[in-house]
Amino acid sequence: MKRLIAIVCLAMTLAAARAVEFDKFFCDTTLRLDYAFAGDAVKHAIYLDQMSRLPRWWGRRAHLDEVPVAGDGTITVRDHRSGRVIYKHSFSSLFQEWVSTAEAKVVRKSMENVFLVPMPRDTVDITVELRDPRHRVTAMLTHRVSPTDILITRRGERDVTPYVTLQQADDTTRCIHIAYVAEGYTDQEMPQFLDHCREAMEALFEHEPFKSMRGRFHIVAVKSASRDSGVSDPGAGCWLNTALGSHFDTFYSKRYLTTLHLKQLHNLLAGVPYEHIIILANTDHYGGGGIYNSYNLSYTRGKHFRPVVVHEFGHSFAGLADEYPYGDDDPRYFSDVEPWEANLTTMRDFSHKWADMIDPSMPFPAPETTDSTLMTSRVGLFEGGGYMKKGVYRPVQECRMRTNAVPEFCPVCRRALRRLIDFYTAPGNDVN
Ligand SMILES: [Zn+2]
Fold first, then answer.
1. For residue 122, how far is its CA from the centre of ligand 1 (angstroms)?
2. Residue 3: enclosing H or E segment and its boundaries?
3. Beta-strand pair 276-281/295-299
4. What is the CATH topology of the domain spanning 163-318?
5. Which of 127, 226, 337, 426 is deepest in the core (most CB within 10 A)?
6. Using one digit for the tens of pLDDT, what is the confidence trace for 71-113?
7. Could you tell me the distance, in angstroms and rounded to a whole number, from the CA of residue 275 to the centre of ligand 1?
8. Stretch 333-353: mean pLDDT, rounded?
């Protein structure tokens, strides 16, 4: 017994020794990195645009060299002297969606991307990597950063966009920072924006696991005023002057409401406590989008506002996939590649998904039911999801990631979200 305890203690000591200590490698400030992702359907490239320093670091202080889910790309920070990985972050991007469009076959474009990493104490090498739906690397850039570089711009020290705190976390040293950002609200419409923020926040906390883990979230509302009210609708010939220049018809898809102005988004947030971003757009036209570790954007003036803003947060916060089929094949999923998203499988590597949550008596593929209780709770392998009717399986018949009609995430999405919240709020090595 004593020997077993000694072995366990040794294993714990080694694990602690391996963990990257935040204070040893980083300061309590943020290094903001702006990149251009450029290319077409065939070739992709990454260019460094600008670097800036923000007054505080609002991200995690534990699990620094791990990513919770793979995403479509990774940013990795290595200590220059030792080569050791000291920070890692995964993401998806609108550019990687665009490269599969018809337009990308005929023109080369570049798009803005912004990432936040803790400011290193010493020189680091930073690598950004993009991957395609087959998980193959399509572009990579490595560049050196010295924290004493005089051309790292200082942002967020003055002229900070006014914001209000909607919810204080129970423990502000280990919580998840969310900022709501106003898009298409004039100065006079800010009270309505704050009402919409509160409505979106309460909608999120009606869903598990957010409901029971509510105290882990610190939430602010950023009053970024627009000159015009509403958002641009290119299909209707309507272009407005708004804080983030968002518009419908992204990539010529009617309901796809996004902003491509990520630098402007982060400029508006400089000096605000934020990591995860929810943009509320002042429009009654149904629409929105969520990009993993980039942002969530939702319309606000309509009956689907509440389910849409929660659904898009599933994408932007946890990288959950859409569980609905469009009926036509999308090149995002292939039968010989297991998707990285927690709530879809092609059965290529199902053991790492929800195999442990399935009732062994459940037929394959799982039959659909008309019993509304079972529709949202019975875990199996339901065929259809990720914009495909065949060959992709989802965990439960109905889920917030599939339809606006059901009021909850399925058990598999709930577990994935819980794991993410635990990942971001684990106690840091240097923070008590
Ligand atoms: Zn689900």
1. 42
2. helix 2-18
3. parallel
4. Collagenase (Catalytic Domain) (3.40.390)
5. 226
6. 999 999 999 999 999 999 999 999 999 999 999 999 999 999 9
7. 24
8. 95
